[in-house]
């Protein structure tokens, strides 16, 4: 009997995989990939067979038979700008995931692996609220240089899921509320949600606050000088910005728990950097409040960093004048993916077709 949903969430250093029965997570594994293993692959898309085999081996070890799966759902990637929702994985989508239409990201593999397993069983593969979700208002696309439009790349999956949860707690629908959601993970997205739509965001890889491993927005003149200094290749500079920036750049660790430990031991430099991260997050939240003309029903802090009472309190001190703050630490992307698939399987939501939504 086909009763399970397989959820696949590829990240930069791991592939999270889970089996759901309805909205119950009955088995999950976080398959870690060492830097050494991953260094064998030139591009992220080259990791396809390796990660797919790791998933299939795990399913086998756990005794799951693919013929019992109803659908496969993966985290979607850097596709063309698209509306939020649950999408059927189609051939055209696979092409865009393979080339990385808006760049390389581990999440590009989610839809590709999901479709290949689903095809072997004649069932559907889906992606839900990929990082390419684009609900920007036109005004948010203007950067200040015509050649460089601002882009919506965002932790849409967790932001939408957490927002739905908090709206429900307030007895409201998502389209009735204005939220500011700060997804505080290895990368940081701070987004204003106007009537549930992500109308702006910093772009976790290029702007906004610095994060545990990313530099955030930089003074552009100095960045251009650095790029032309001859000291770095394009790849090296990109790595410095995403992977070796933020806490890693200043403190040599991407682990906020380690930073808090150092602060508690009296490390004043660690304190300065950690406080600067909170300062930049709060400043971005203030900018989102301006986007929403001050009409903010709730500020939500989520992601792994929101487990830090110290970080939360530093942010809240600066933003509590705007609205109440709700803390939803961690993320439940696996459940969000399963629920997205279930909404279309149960007919509560219409499945979206990539080609129709992006006009190709
Ligand atoms: N209990 C905790 N207290 C403070 N920071 C934490 C805690 N748990 C996780 N973190 C921090 O959260 C960050 C990772 O967040 P996470 O949402 O797991 O990121 P990602 O999914 O992008 O890898 C790391 O800096 C980690 O140290
Ligand atoms: C660009 C937004 C998505 C993102 O940065 O995801 P990760 O933090 O999982 O890399």
Automatic annotation (TrEMBL):
It is found in: Cytoplasm. One of its GO terms (cellular component) is cytoplasm. Its main location: cytoplasm. Keywords: ATP-binding, Cytoplasm, Kinase, Nucleotide-binding, Transferase. It comes from the Bacteria. Gene3D superfamilies: 3.30.420.40. One of its GO terms (biological process) is acetate metabolic process. CDD domains: ASKHA_NBD_BK. One of its GO terms (molecular function) is butyrate kinase activity. PANTHER family: ACETATE KINASE (PTHR21060), BUTYRATE KINASE 2-RELATED (PTHR21060:SF3). Belongs to the acetokinase family. This is Probable butyrate kinase. The gene is buk.
